[in-house]
Specification:
single chain; about 240 residues; mainly alpha; elongated
Amino acid sequence: MPKPRLNADERSDAIVAAAMPLFARKGFAGTTIKDLALAAGVSEALLYKHFPNKEAIYAAILARGFKEAADDKLRFLNEEPCTESLIQHVHFLICRFFTDKTDRGDPSKPAEFQNMLRLVLNSLMEDGEFARQVFEQVNAGPRVNFEASYTAATKAGDVIPGVVKPGNAFWFMHHLALTLAASRLPGAMVLSYLGSDDAIVRQAVTFILRGLGMKEDVIAAKYDHKELNRKMKSAMAM
């Protein structure tokens, strides 16, 4: 039985889905339109009907990745800016990058996240443009929310002011999460972290919270990793 014809939007989505692992493996410079057409199972002429160039496909991958990441985060981060929401931000990011615990049972999710990470890392070794676009979107969205929580926690007296500039605090956290995620890209861990995944997440989150200047008694009282994991799992199931 022949497969049903895809409409224009479905075909565009299929091209983007096929292009993501190809860009992730070969990088932007190493991927040709011919490669993209073959991966998507379409002619080059048909591909050009949907995307004028490979830059446009690259941009579509970026938009798709951020829409899904934003949807996941909105399900979980539903608190007003405060100390608790700051802890949520950190815990969510480390889980997302290191263990992909935001996956909702869709086997394609971990692979898609890993492909996005490879795209960023390949970009950093090329012209940096894709990575720059990713970081610009992060800077305009998640960073703003994080800083609001960081400021609220500082005003509440739970974070020691002046330990780190708020803008830098977000990126220090983000870059640690990025490195944790990169350590798992080959499949098997390339770093000898000690402990279970949950233990490593707890240690990384505690390390970051201390680096942000959060007081020890506040961390002990307000960082409940089991409750956050439960809340995250519940939110992702919705």
